[in-house]
Amino acid sequence: MQIRKGDIVGRKSYGKDILFKVSNIVKRTDEDIAILEGITKRIEADSKISDLEIIPKKIIKEKIKKLNEHIEKKIHVTEKRYTDEIKTGKILHLDGDKKYSEKSYYYYQKMGLNAIVKNIPEYKQPKVIKHLLEIYKPDILVITGHDGMLRRGTRYHDIYNYRNSRYFIETVKQAREFDKKEGGNLVIFAGACQSYFEALISAGANFASSPARILIDFLDPLIVAQKIATTERYKYITIDDIAYELRDGKDGVSGIGAKGKLSKM
């Protein structure tokens, strides 16, 4: 069966462990290469067409249902409502994936948080961040989407060994440049699956993924943002205060910490 853009596929050499959407097909003289975006994981990869297999609709529905149940379970456990006397931190969330943007907005709304979510491709995020910060003036910025290492297990400190980390890093730098003029109070989470953690922190992120270069959980960036938004301003949040709520703890996310953004009117 011919593989086309938009198909949901799995990589045979990986046991079809992750569902991917074919976002693009690159023509080659020997064999075409498919650019892949994770359906339930924040990862981007590529593959020879011959290594791909179209996934049956039943399996796709089951995987997506499992992700949705995971989100609903987290909402059920931690859902809160805030009174008019309490003001949670304002979140601006940039996500390179449309479906993840929609799920993120749903989560924030269910949690009663003040959040704006924008679906912006990773490569465009550095170009628009200052304008968005000027418009929305958030307390917390989340920069995420898809990422991944081109070659795992090597070249950890080579920016060109990461698919989208350079865009996240530049977005963080642009945000920090803007924030300095505004008082320097912005809290930033940045990164996705296998992102260049050290460079993101050096660029100015308070929290980032992924120290162990693993596939982070979809909810990880949202949980970090939520924790900061609902913690009093006089309290300082470290990764130790959040790690137990993250699927893979400090292997998936770490950072230097930040003050909370909740205030009482």
**Percentage of residues assigned to helices:** 25-40%
Mean pLDDT: 94
- Please write the CATH class name of the largest domain: Alpha Beta
Q: How many strands, what sense, and barrel or not for the largest sheet?
A: 6 strands, mixed
CATH topology of the largest domain: Rossmann fold
Radius of gyration: 19 Å
**How far is the N terminus from the C terminus?**
61 Å
CATH architecture of the largest domain: 3-Layer(aba) Sandwich
Structural category is: alpha/beta
Strands ordered across the widest β-sheet: 8-7-9-10-11-13
Q: Runs with pLDDT <50, length 5+?
A: none
Give the tags:
single chain, 265 residues, alpha/beta, Rossmann fold, 6-stranded mixed sheet, 5-stranded antiparallel sheet, 6 helices, 31% helix
Describe the structure.
The strands form four sheets. The protein has a six-stranded mixed beta sheet with strand order 8-7-9-10-11-13, sandwiched between helices. Strands 4-3-2-1-5 form a five-stranded antiparallel beta sheet, with no helix packed on it. Helix 3 packs parallel to helix 4. The model has no long low-confidence stretch (mean pLDDT 94). It has six helices and 15 strands. Strand 2 and strand 3 form a beta hairpin. The termini are far apart. With 265 residues, it is α/β, with parallel strands linked by helices.
